[in-house]
Amino acid sequence: MPSVLSDGVVLQRGVPLKIWGKADPGERVKVSLSGKKQETVAAPDSTWSVTLPPMKAGGPYVMTVNDKSINDVLIGDVYLCSGQSNMELPVNRVLDFFREEVAAYKNPNVREFKTPKEYSFDTEKEDVSAAIWKKAIPGESEKFGALVYFMGKELYEKNGHVPVGIVNSSWGGSRIEAWLSDDALEDYPERKHRLQISADNKYREQLGAGERRAQNLWYAIMNADDPGYKGEKWNSTQLDDTEWNTVELLGKEWGTKDGKAVNGSHWLRKKVTVPAEKSGERAELRLGCIVDADSVWVNGKFVGFTAYQYPPRIYQIPEGVLTSGDNLVCVRVVSNGGTPHFVTDKPHKIIFNDGSEVSLEGEWKHRRGTEMPPTPSVTDFFQTPSVLYNGLIHPFLNIPFRGVVWYQGESDVDIRGEYKSLMKSLIKDWRNAYSDAEMPFYIVELADFLHPDDKYGRKSWQEMRDAQRAAADETDRTWWIKNGDIGEWNDIHPRDKKTPGTRVAEKILSTNSLK
């Protein structure tokens, strides 16, 4: 059976249901679901399929396929959600805003199937690697895409408690062209030819090997030459840092020299005072977001590491590490390109269990470790035209979806002049692939981003939003979801995913897509 037809699957109500898989050639296959039965014989290529009659919302049921059982099957409304990181961003990244709500909500009738990250150059794949259906219950909800979590909750509560299933086929950093089929690229010859170049296996192998070697050398040289790792370690509580430079944590001067960004490693140290009554307590360390990577120690104890700039730094300080009086926080920042810095207007503090805090802002001691050139780049082959369609959309063509929710565009602001055409092509392409000319599409507008002083950047983002809206306005049964009023100027991944998720659900409920 394909990965998506596994325990916990939600199937679309009110339409014929195709059930498919593989068996030995000539093997008789019998399928039964809630009293509906069909049988067939596997073809010479081992494939088989049957179509069950439409069913009303309900369940859970057990579907049997010969001697196999698919348990906990629901019949409800199923949606395909796709795009990039703001569609993929998990609930556990937004718990600052919604921790109590997520902890209190338990609904096994709202489910998500998050696809693995895999692409294909050679073929349109028939299946994805093993993945599971998750339920909106504590312990599983945190792994949902945050937007689809709130969308699913709203749909269930406002639509007569019809079960909701969401196939979340998204990939952070993906470009829209990667989600177009090869046929759709006929209208974009430059992209088609780029695909043909990258489709050469030897080219990818050699390029990838060279790029990985260059990156490995960069990190090996930086770490081997870093004086912070030689002799007395710079994360040591015994180190005398009085001769280090004094810098402002939220300034950018420490990351530059002679007006240029200094890539490589930087070490920052700060002594903070912990009240006697907090000595030995477990606590949480917050450092906002950092450009680019970081390793953090508290009193010489390693407490966390993040490899790239976007995730919020939230590290747990174990019990027994903090002491009364002075405590040392040491951060090693690795800059891959651009100016290293701590993002402003983010939390930088130690938080205790009772909610009391110790600020980490202000003056720190700083010293450069290894000065390096920018990190050698690595080609993101998942951005190649068609490869995500092949790997993450084509496997689901047998599933009837109630609609498609699309949240993507941050990676394509540089081609915003072409985006309307590409978006309209994608809608047409997917509707053709699913043989559903009226498949509803819901386009989520890019959220607010960039500092008010960044006039050019903000103008570019607005032009991208205009392109998104124009694509919706000019395409039948396509709706635009306002989201430009939501966001954080200093975070491309705003934590409020409830507002856009609720708006998507409201738009679905207000259109005739639920007829």
Description:
It comes from Lepagella muris. This is Sialate O-acetylesterase. The chain has 515 residues and is α+β, with helices and mostly antiparallel strands. It has two domains: 75-180 and 385-514, 3-Layer(aba) Sandwich (Rossmann fold), CATH 3.40.50; 223-372, Galactose-binding domain-like (Jelly Rolls, Sandwich), CATH 2.60.120.260. Helix content is 23%, strand content 30%. The protein has nine helices and 27 strands. It has helices at 85-88, 95-104, 146-158, 189-198, 201-225, 387-393, 416-433, 455-473, 498-510, and strands at 10-12, 17-22, 28-33, 36-41, 47-52, 58-65, 68-83, 107-114, 133-136, 164-170, 245-248, 256-257, 260-261, 263-274, 283-287, 290-291, 293-298, 301-306, 314-317, 325-335, 341-342, 348-352, 357-359, 363-372, 403-407, 441-444, 478-481. The strands form six sheets. Strands 1, 3, 4, 6, 7, 8, 9, 10, 25, 26 and 27 form an eleven-stranded mixed sheet that branches. Strands 11-24-14-20-17-18 form a six-stranded antiparallel sheet. Strands 19-15-22-23 form a four-stranded antiparallel sheet, with no helix packed on it. α3 (146-158) crosses α9 and α7 runs parallel beside α8. The longest helix is centred in the middle third of the chain and has 25 residues, at 201-225. The two termini are 31 Å apart. The model has no long low-confidence stretch (mean pLDDT 97).
